[in-house]
Amino acid sequence: MTGRRTYGSYNDGCASAHALDMIGERWALIVVRELLLGPKRFVDIQRDIPGIGPGPLSQRLQELEETGVVERRLLPEPARVTVYGLTKWGHGLEAVNTALSLWAVQSPRLPLEADMGPDTLVLAMRAHARPLAAGSPDRTVALKLTDSRTTGREAVAYLATLTSTGSWIDKTAVIDGADAEVSSTTRAWKNLIIGGAVLDRAEDITSSGDRKAVQALINATKL
User: Fold this and answer.
1) Is 183 a domain residue?
2) d(CA 53, CA 203)
3) Do 41 and 74 contact (CB within 8 A), yes or no?
4) Which candidate, 223, 215, 38, 29, places its Cα nearest to that of 118?
5) Residue 73's beta-bridge partner residues?
6) What keywords does the record list, in alphabetical order (predicted)?
7) For the residues of 121-152, what is the DSSP string, one character each?
8) What is the CATH classification number for the domain harbouring 209?
9) How many structural domains does the chain have?
């Protein structure tokens, strides 16, 4: 990151200080967070991070490219658009994002009423995901989330896999064959996962298939 002094230039050889040189600038780790579940176009990143302007976003992406955290590539035909994604090394920052989430959830000032985007909410679920109880049947749940912060946007699809050895959620384009399918706004789903709301009383949520699978997903990923 040219043009400014680093911790190393102050003779600080600490690896965590060096990490802050790379991802400690305002918006940097938030940009990384938005790419953890897959590459995005510039306009999509800006849309998903309320408050960031095109100038700061361009600067953060350039700096993250220079440090080897982010890479830019051109998608082949018919898309032929430029997207930004994390490098293999950059994906290691999900562990940092998870650790920060687990730490900050204990804050008395956590803004529980604030909205979250689909990817951000799913990353919170991944951070807190737990295995099912021993002997429980494996379950899969297709989750479609619509961003409550804006209107007219398509739902984003994810597939949750729940087992007695671990639970995880990934973004997906194919959701056929799941035990259950649930559609929700991010605000309503956040109320279940973070706010402690009850599925049977929730609004703006529809589901089909195995209702127990949906409840298992909530139980396995709620804070």
Assistant:
1) yes
2) 33
3) no
4) 38
5) 83
6) DNA-binding, Transcription, Transcription regulation
7) HHHHHHHH--PPPTTPPPEEEEEEEE-TTSSS
8) 3.30.1050.10
9) 2
Coil/strand/helix, residue 191: helix
Structure tokens at 143: 């989750």
- Which residue range forms the structural domain that includes residue 29? 8-97
86 and 41 in a single domain? The answer is yes
pTM of the model: 0.90
Q: For 84-122, what is each residue's pLDDT tens digit?
A: 999 999 999 999 999 999 999 999 999 988 999 999 999
**Would you tell me how many other CB atoms lie within 10 Å of the CB of residue 143?**
29
Cis preceding linkage at 137, omega within 30: no
Q: How far is CA 40 from the centre of its chain?
A: 13
pLDDT, tens only, 32-44? 999 999 999 999 9
Residue count of the chain: 223
Amino acid, res. 82: T
- Which among 97, 127, 161 is the end of a domain? 97
Burial tier of 117 (Cβ tally within 10 Å: 0-12, 13-18, 19+): buried
Here the CATH number for the domain that contains residue 21 is: 1.10.10.10
Let me know if residue 105 belongs to a domain.
Answer: no
Q: Is the dihedral of CA 217, 219, 220, 221 positive or negative?
A: positive
Distance of CA 72 to CAs 82, 91, 109, 219, Å?
7, 14, 36, 37
Q: Tell me the one-letter amino acid at 14.
A: C
Alpha-carbon span 142 to 159, nearest angstrom? 5
77-81-87-90 Cα dihedral, nearest 10 degrees? -150
